[in-house]
Write a structure and sequence with these properties.
This protein is α/β, with parallel strands linked by helices. The chain contains 10 helices and 5 strands; from the N terminus they run E-H-E-H-E-H-E-H-E-H-H-H-H-H-H.
Length: 221
């Protein structure tokens, strides 16, 4: 089955983490045929090593694996910081136990596919999640021109540096792109971002951008 990806655009990179070699190869082949770039990992530790060297657009991950489980991998990914906060994470599992789904959602999983894998559903899920992220970024870019650092600074009591980082986030830039644009280290950008999270009262990048665009922090429950 082939996808409808525009070859003139960025080719999404998918990380597939699966300890069954035949299934992993089949998933990778289906994704490659649909026009995606794919990197493969046999288990959690190998996946985390790959994440140190690359930034996938979406992660497919088995739950039950030797060593680190899929839940462990998800915890590490979500703890890696804002660059990974919006990366879609889809679990693969041989079990359809609702408790697994609840646990995955609680940890920040975006979707869940049951083995044996229905490849039409797999490709539809990947496409839907990537389109969702693209829509979010499109809205960010469309709404951000009305913002400026001084407005953000006044609204959220940000420092000048924090306001500049916040504005760049609303424009859809990654931490690496912000660091390069401002000629500072990525660690410095991450430090400012932690302060922005604290001052706005949110902890996910997609939520943060929505709050910044709206112009006021979420109400306390």
């Amino acid at each position: 089955m082939t996808g409808n990806l525009d070859t003139h655009r960025h080719v999404p990179l998918i990380l597939c983490i699966e300890d069954e070699p035949d299934l992993r190869r089949d998933i990778a082949d289906e994704l490659s045929e649909a026009g995606y770039a794919v990197i493969e990992a046999r288990e959690g530790r190998e996946a985390l090593d790959l994440l140190d060297a690359s930034r996938p657009d979406l992660i497919l991950c088995d739950i039950s694996m030797p060593g680190l489980s899929g839940y462990d991998v998800l915890r590490v990914v979500r703890a890696k910081g804002p660059d990974y906060a919006e990366t879609p994470f889809v679990f693969l599992s041989a079990l359809s136990d609702p408790r697994e789904i609840v646990e995955g959602k609680r940890l920040g999983a975006d979707d869940y596919l049951v083995k044996p894998i229905d490849y039409d559903l797999l490709l539809a899920t990947v496409d839907a999640r990537l389109r969702q992220i693209a829509r979010i970024r499109s809205v960010q870019k469309a709404q951000s021109p009305d913002l400026d650092p001084s407005t953000l600074s006044r609204s959220f009591e940000l420092t000048n540096a924090e306001a500049r980082v916040a504005l760049a986030l609303t424009e859809g830039k990654t931490l690496a792109e912000i660091a390069e644009a401002f000629s500072v280290s990525r660690t410095t950008v991450a430090y400012h971002l932690r302060n922005i999270f604290q001052k706005t009262g949110v902890n996910r990048q997609t939520e943060l951008v929505a709050v910044l665009i709206r112009g006021y922090p979420p109400r306390e429950m």
